[in-house]
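Q:
Got a chain?
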Amino acid sequence: MNTGKTLFAQLMDFLPWSTFSRIVARYDGDRAVRTLSCTAQFRVMAFAQLTYRESLRDIEACLSAQTAKLYHMGFREPVHRSTLADANEARDWRIYAEFAHRLIAQARRLYAGDSLGVDLSGTVYALDSTTIDLCLSVFPWAHFRSTKAAVKMHTLLDLRGNIPSFIHVSDGKLHDVHALDMLLPEAGAIYVMDRGYVDFTRLHALHEVGAFFVTRAKSNLDAHRVYSAPSDRTAGVICDQTIALDGHLTRRDYPAHLRRIRFRDAETGKTLVFLTNQMTLPALTICALYKSRWQVELFFKWIKQHLRIKRFYGTSENAV
């Protein structure tokens, strides 16, 4: 139904602006601001992403070409690229990060009833990261290698609806396993990770709070079998074992028993070895959970295809 508003204004009406105002006040974001408040800055950057603007000059040119419509889009004054550049440079990035998490929580409620594809009632998360390459001469603060710059986006994806529940952007040198230190583990939830996150101290911390994990075992895992459960080789499950770690450090870091499942994929012919502290679910369900981790890779692909991250609107760390 046409309400007399532009499509962009109708989209912005869905956002909880009262919450945004409280966040701005918490970080004193509009202190000494004469033009382009934090609200206006958010609208401009949202407009730039939704309309695929290439640069600050492109944003300014696009908005100035339709000055008669700016008021109806929510802009109370013309937008100049220098003012926008200063805002991206100086405004506290935590304002927009906190607002993003508020929107994420709102979106997750909409997909709470979605099916996971497996018979589970609890929450399942996929944890992974992706590296975004940058030019070292333009982004010297994001030093990654001798001739390369990059930032890394660590993401915890809720597999019900494929909505991220946690995102942290770091420099490219931060190892993936450190993302586990930033999480607030949720008791009863299942965290699916690749073997880059195998750190038995951190995995035992998840186990201690009642959370579960599913990951792949490294080839040099030092452990012995405690018990073997019946397995269905016709379905690809070669073995389903309860194991104890043998290494001096690993046994100290993770003193409890683990479950090891060896699975042969009929499609690729590859044999995969999974580690988990979830002892009750069927072995095929554990394998299906790890397969669902691919959703986070599809999320990264979507991000890189649809957001302006190949060419940023600012080059400072705060702007990025």
User: Anything to note?
Assistant: The longest helix spans residues 93-110.
